[in-house]
Amino acid sequence: MKQSGKSMSDFKFVPTLSKTLKELDDLTRNALAVEAKVRPATINDIASGKSKQINMETLNAIIETLNTFAKEKGLDKKYSVSDIFEHEDFLNQKYCD
């Protein structure tokens, strides 16, 4: 499959990971990368909307790690894909309803 070279933002995906990290007492991107066993550059690309593709294994590792941090901090929250990125059309619908 040929790569288009387009990033998340070109497909109207809006990164929400930075907001999620703030909820977790300013958890750093690097700390998330280390615990999730994901390259720091991958986390940075996702958080900045520059990622061109996201592997499901990577996405799962990030979500599981966010949930582990939340549990350790005593937060009653389960993180999901929408805490990493959302589609612009969904966001528009969410805030217009």
What report would you give on this structure?
With 97 residues, this protein is mainly alpha-helical. It has a single domain, classed as 434 Repressor (Amino-terminal Domain) (Orthogonal Bundle), CATH 1.10.260. Strands 1-2 form a two-stranded antiparallel ribbon. The longest helix is centred in the middle third of the chain and has 17 residues. It comes from Bacillus vallismortis. This is Helix-turn-helix domain-containing protein. InterPro entries: Cro/C1-type_HTH (IPR001387), Lambda_DNA-bd_dom_sf (IPR010982). GO terms for molecular function: DNA binding.
Would you state the CATH class?
Mainly Alpha
The total tally of domains equals 1
**What is the CATH third-level topology name?**
434 Repressor (Amino-terminal Domain)
Cα Rg: 14 Å
Which shape, going by the Cα principal axes?
globular
Low-pLDDT runs: none
Distance between the termini: 38 Å
Helix content: 40-55%
Structural class assignment? mainly alpha
Largest sheet: 2 strands, antiparallel
Per CATH, the architecture is Orthogonal Bundle
Return the string of H and E elements: EHHHHEH
- Strand sequence of the main sheet, in spatial order? 1-2
Strand % is 5-15%
Arithmetic mean of pLDDT: 90
The count of DSSP E runs of length 2 or more, i.e. the number of strands, is 2
